[in-house]
Amino acid sequence: MEKARLEELYDKIRGKLKDDLGLKNIMQVPRVSKVVLNAGIKGADSKVLQDVIKTFEVITGQKAVRTRARKSIAGFKLREGMIVGAKVTLRRRMMYEFLDRLISFTLPKVRDFQGVPTRFDREGNYNLGLKEWSVFPELDKEVREKVHGLNITIQTTARNQQEGLALLKELGMPFKEA
Question: Is residue 18 within 8 Å of 28, Cβ to Cβ?
Answer without folding.
Answer: yes
